TrEMBL record:
Transmembrane segments: none annotated. It comes from the Bacteria. Its cofactor is FAD. This is proline dehydrogenase. Residues 43-287 form the Proline dehydrogenase domain. Its EC number is 1.5.5.2. Pfam families: Pro_dh.
Amino acid sequence: MSLTRDFFIALSKNQLLNNGAKKWGLKLGASKVVAGTDINSMMKSVKELNANGIGATIDNLGEFVYSKEEALEAKASILETLEAIQQHGVTAHMSIKLTQVGLDVDYKFCLENMREIVAAAANYAIFINIDMEDYSHLQQTLDILHALLEDYDNVGTVIQSYLYRSEKDLENLQNVRLRLVKGAYKELSEVSYQSKQDIDMNYLKLIKLRLQQPAFTSIATHDHHIIDAVKKFAKENSIPRDRFEFQMLYGFRSDMQKELAEEGYAFTTYVPFGQDWYGYYMRRLAERPQNINLALKSLVSK
Ligand code: FDA
């Protein structure tokens, strides 16, 4: 199981395959979990979600950005997507990875790009969520978040329960809108829990701490055990439903997504789109190897 996970995480980091995949269009079953390669197809999916009472957090996919030129291109696409959200009047915000807008190129350059994006989003009253990437980017991500929070309040980030330091980070971000997740990358035992049991235990602990803090929380998981425990905790502790929401990825447990929305829980689906689907898809296969069936079926049915 963990060998399979390592294999797909390694594949997700293969730049050659990533570059090739941009030219293929959505392949290997990726169209089940990626909402198209352009704004129009993505908007169609977002409108369908909205019609079921579900909001969207849109990820304009982008990987392996190591030059200013690529980062500026990514920024332009993100600004275009913000404009489309406004024009179509959909219930949606955006999720952005800092490496996509230049964190691996230069810290200040990335911060300036984010300032432009968060300012444009603030004009439209759109929230920007900074996705959390691997541990090597974590401190810089929090530094950029804090710099942006000095001028804007429409920005937040993600806390990963597999990291030992997350409880402390939660404490320092009590008034900031946050998404809580288990964590998607492969991290060393020096900094992170390794077993599913420890990660799940810490996840529930952090969720319970967080739900007693004032700011809005997104609980992003497909794990029904966690979801049931959150519902129970919220009920027993009279946590108002407008203080938190559930989030899942596009194409995952769609029936449960609708059910939770129908039960009256706030719900947002993470909607990735774009030509740069390969790395995102490989990380999803790493998390849930059962999805390999999707990839294999799509190979033989073409
Ligand atoms: P996990 O994969 O541990 O599954 C637990 C159990 O749930 C399974 O054993 C199974 O019973 C059930 N289950 C899970 N998926 C299922 C499915 N598709 N069908 C049926 N049953 C299923 N990570 C990160 O590091 N940074 C980030 O910014 C984000 N952002 C993010 C946003 C959103 C909206 C989501 C949903 C997730 C992320 N993640 C993330 C990814 C996250 O860290 C984590 O890797 C995945 O969500 C997988 O963990 P789960 O909590 O879903 O359960």
